[in-house]
Amino acid sequence: MNYRILVADDHPLFRAAINQIMSVQLDGVVIDETDSVSGLQAKLEENQDADLILLDLHMPGAQGFSALVFLRNHYPDIPVVVISAQEDPVVIGRAMQFGAAGFIPKSAEPKTIKHAIETVLGGDLWSPEPVTNINERSQYEQEMAEKLASLTPSQFKVLVMMNEGLLNKQIAYELEVSEATIKAHATAIFQKLGVRNRTQAVIALHELDIEHPAHVATDDTNSDQ
Known about the structure:
GO terms for molecular function: DNA binding. This is DNA-binding response regulator. It is built from ten helices and seven strands. The protein is α/β, with parallel strands linked by helices. It has two domains: about 5-120, Response regulator (Rossmann fold); about 140-210, Orthogonal Bundle (Arc Repressor Mutant, subunit A). Strands 2-1-3-6-7 form a five-stranded parallel β-sheet, sandwiched between helices. Helix 3 (about 65-75) packs across helix 6 (about 140-150) and helix 9 (about 180-195) packs across helix 10. The longest helix has 15 residues, at about 180-195. It starts with a strand and ends in a 20-residue tail after the last helix. The relative contact order is 0.14.
């Protein structure tokens, strides 16, 4: 059976490693790559016929679990496997609670990555260790996740660009729309998030952030994080 896997990671060496693992150990797999959440959105808008998304938690546009929450709400039929240098059981548990179908540490051996992907493609969940009784989400965090999930794809894209520090006119230029359209999106974003301005909106986006790992061991199949 042929599978299309979207790999969203800003480290080219890791994307190359995934390509190598999949091409050597799994038949009929097509790998499509991107290095940002906006790039992933563009690919999904162009073609939603994907069987799996491998999502890095730390790349442009991925503010902690915010991208995961967005993907699970707008593309519920496509399983998402988080790939990360984070190996904290609490982070793994939270990712699974936010809807990830799996969690693959970047330190995992190629055979483990292959097994994890095959497991998820087969319809099951996979994590490096059992996830039990982990409930780190506060009520406020859960409410914020629901608010972020309510944003349309266009609104989420605008919010991510706000987080990158772009002005309305710059966002309009990048998205090839009018500044009035961006202002309308911004107003809708503020209403849905329950905030008054873009600073508060960006702060809200960071409510689902996680600490960036300081370092990760590397080998022939893993890149620096």
